[in-house]
Amino acid sequence: EIIHLEDYQPTDFVLERVDLTFELDPLETKVEARLIFHRREGVAADRPLVLDGDELKMTGLLLDQEPIAAEDYTETGETLTIRGLPDSAPFEITVTTELSPQTNTKLMGLYRTNDVYCTQCEAEGFRRITFFPDRPDVLAVYTVNIIADKATVPLLLSNGNFLGGAGMGDGRHFAAWFDPHPKPSYLFALVAGDLGVVEDSFTTLSGREVVLKIYVEHGKEPRAAYAMDALKRSMRWDEEVFGREYDLDIFMIVAVSDFNMGAMENKGLNVFNDKYVLADPETATDQDYANIEAIIAHEYFHNWTGNRITCRDWFQLCLKEGLTVYRDHQFSADQRSRAVKRIAEVRHLKAEQFPEDGGPLAHPVRPTRYREINNFYTTTVYEKGSEVTGMIATLLGPDLFKAGMDLYFDRHDGQAVTIEDFIRCFEEASGRDLTQFSLWYHQAGTPLVSASGTYDASRQTFTLQLEQTVPPTPGQSTKQPVHIPLRFALISEDGTITEASSVSGAEVTGDVLHLVERSQSVTFEGIASRPVVSLNRGFSAPINLHFEKSSADRAQIARFETDLFARWQALNDMALDALVAATASVRAGTPVVCDQALIDALMATVSDDALEPAFRAQALALPSESDIAREIGRDNDPDAIFAARREIMTAIATAGRETFAGLFETMRSTEAFSPDAASAGRRALRNSALAYLVLAENAPTRAVEAFSAADNMTDLSQALTILVHRFPDTPEATAALESFQTRFADNALVLDKWFTVQATIPGAATLERVETLMAHPLFNGLNPNRVRALVGTFAFSNPTGFNRADGKGYRFLARQILDIDPRNPQLAARILTSMRSWRSLESGRAEHARAALSEIAAGAKLSPDVSDIVERTLKG
Ligand code: ARG
Ligand code: ZN
C-alpha cells in the first residue's frame, strides 16, 4: 500500500488527553490506554473512529467505561474501527492490550534490551503498544503510570516531569509521570529496569534549574562523563545561538545496547544507542567522541526542532531532521575546527547521499509517496535536508536567516507543520521569493553544474560560462533549473583574491554567485590577469561540479585559497583525477604514473606547520574506492580501482617517506590523553603518516610497534587496521587481533570494532573470513550494532570483498537479508541499501547483483521494509 502526500486529511476526531498504565512483565505486559476524544467540528456523525495497531492483542475495549457491543467495532490486525460515537460531546475510549516485550525483536514499540524495558516509537511504533491515532499531527498531553516488580525493575521512567511513586505492598511499585507539552505519539517513551546513573544540573538563561541524568548499565557510569559534558555544551549553545531554552524540570538520556538507529529524541527522555553515549580513552576513538558530541546535540536540539514544533505528516520528516542536522553541524563547527568539520561533512555527504541521489533509491528531500516510512530515514532527508537549510542561510545571510528562524519558533510553537510553513517564515522575514529555491525540496537528484572560463586580456574581462542540469530520477524524468548559491573566489597569478569592478549576467551578493538559469554567462570586469576560479567554496551547494582545470590551476587554489575547505577540495580533485587515470591504466594494463603536481601539492600541504594537523590529515586521506567508482560512473571494476589506489598511495608514500617518518615522530603526544579536536587532529595526522610509512616500508614492523605502544583506542585501532588490512594472515596480524579480542572481551562496543576491522580487509578472501566470524561465539545476530559491524561494514565498506567477481558476496548478502528480515525488518532493509549502486558495476558483477536481488525479491513473507527496498533497487 502506497501513501501519498496529496491524500493528507486531518483526523476526524481530536485527541485531548492520554492516560497510560503499564504493568510490566517480560512476556505479559498489560497496557491500559484511556483516550479522551471529541469529534472534530464539521465531521459527519456517522464517521467512525479509526485507530492504528500493529501485531496487538486486545484484551478489553470500553466507551465511557462501558463495554462496546461487538457490532460497534471491528478489529483487524492493523486497525480498530469504532462506530456509533457521540456527535459532539467528548468521550473516553479505554483499550487494554497485552504485549510481550521480551520477544519483540523488531525493536519497535516496547521491547527489552539487557533486561531493561525500553520503547522506540518513531515513526510508527506506538501502534505496537496500543490502538491509537498514530500520526504526528495528533498532539496530546500524556500521563503515564508504570507498575513493575520493585526488586528487578527499580527504575521507572517516562516523559515529562515526575509526579510521584510508591511501593504497592505486593513487591511491586509504581511511578507516575506527566508531560505538560502536547506531543505526538512518536515522542512517547518508557524505560524501566535496573540502571546506573550520572547526575548533573543545568541552569537555563532565564534561571530554570534542570536536573540532568544519564542512565547506563551499572559500572559504566564513568564512561558517560563526556556525553554529559556534550549535553551541557549543547544546552548552552542552543540558548546562545538559536535563543532556545529547555522547558522541563528534568532531562534524561538512557543508553541501551540494542537499538536500530543512532538515538531518539523522546520528550525529556532521549533513548540512545550506547555507542553514542559511552566513551573513555581506552575504548573510544576520536571519531566516537565526535559522534557522541554530535548526536547528543542532535537529539537535544530536537526538543525545539521536532518536539515543540513537529511534522504534520511523515512526508515532512526533513522539517525536523534536515533542520536538526543543520543545527548539530553548526554546533560541532563551533566546538571544533569549522573547516575540518565541513570537510568531514562533505566527505560523508558525497559518500552516502550522492550515491543514493544518483541511484535507484533517489527521492526528494520532501518525498510525495512512500510504502514504508522507515525507509525514508535516509541521508537525503537528513544530510541533503541539512544542506538545503544551509543554502537558505547562505541566500539570506546570518541576520535574515536568524529572523526567519525566530519567526518559525514564534509562529509554529506547539504545532505540527509542513515544509511550506517553514519556507514561508524565511520569505516573510527576508522579503525574498523562495519559490524557485523550494525545488531543492521537491526534485530528487544531484544537480550537475558545468563551468568553463575565458579570460580576455585586452578587455580585462573574465567570463564564466555556467550550465546546470538536474538528472532524471525514479518517478521524475524532467527537472526545472534550481537556485544554486555558489560561493566563489577569483585567484590571480600572484595568489591574491581579485575583486571585479563590476559583474554582469548573474546576481552576486558578497562572494555568492546566484545561478538560477539553465545556462548563464557571467562576466567580471576589471580583471588584470587570468584568474583561477575557486567555485563552490565551502561546498555552498550540494552539487556535482564539472570544471576542467589543469593541475597547476588546482594547485594554485590549494596553495592560495583563503577558504580552507576549497583548498582541501582542490587537492581532493587533483587526487581524484589521478586516481581515475590510474584506474584506466590498470584496466588497460599500462603502467600507473602518479601526477607529480599532486605529490608536490600534497607534500607542501602536509609539511606546512601553519596548517592545523587535522586539516593536513584530511588532505592525505585520498578519495575512497567508492568515491572513485562514483566519479567513473559506469562499468566499474572494484579490483582495478583498488589496485590503482594502492599504486597512487604507494607513489605518494615513497616520495614522502621522510616527511611521513618526521610527522610520525613530531605528532606524537607527550601529554595525557584529551579528546579535544586539536589533540585528535594530531593523532589523525600521525596515523595517516603511519599508514603511508607502512606502505613505503612494505613491512608490518612499524604497525606492530604502534599497536604495542598505543595508549588510546584511536591509535590502537588505527594500528590494528593498518596491520591487518595491509598484511592479513601474517602471524603479526593474527597475534594483534587475538590480543585485541582478549583485552576487550567484555566490551561489546570495542568488539564491534574487532569485527569491523576484519570485515573490511580488502580482497575476495574476506568473504570466507566473514562467514567464519558469523559462527563466532561473539557474533550475535540479534544485536543491531554487531550485525552492522560485521555484515553491514562488509557490504558497505569493503568494495573488493563484497563485489567479488564471482558474485558470492552478493549471494551472501541475500542470505543474510532473508535471515535478518523476519526478526528485524528495519535492520535488514538498511543493510540492503548497500546494493544501491549495482548498476554502475561492470556487466559480470551487475548480473550477479541482479540475481542476488531477485533471490531476495522472491523470498517468502518479506517485510514491507525489505520488499520496498528490493523492488525499488531492481527497478530504478
Ligand atoms: N528521530 C531519530 C533521530 O534522527 C531517528 C529515529 C528513527 N527511527 C526509526 N525507526 N526510523 O534523531
Ligand atoms: Zn533526528
From TrEMBL:
Domain Peptidase M1 alanyl aminopeptidase Ig-like fold: 445-547
Transmembrane segments annotated in the record for this chain: none
All copies of domain Peptidase M1 membrane alanine aminopeptidase, residue ranges: 226-437
GO BP term, pick one: proteolysis
Enzyme Commission number(s) of this protein: 3.4.11.2
Domain Peptidase M1 alanyl aminopeptidase C-terminal: 552-875
Entry keywords, A to Z: Aminopeptidase, Hydrolase, Metal-binding, Metalloprotease, Protease, Zinc
Protein name according to UniProt: Aminopeptidase N
Source organism per UniProt: Ferranicluibacter rubi
Gene: pepN
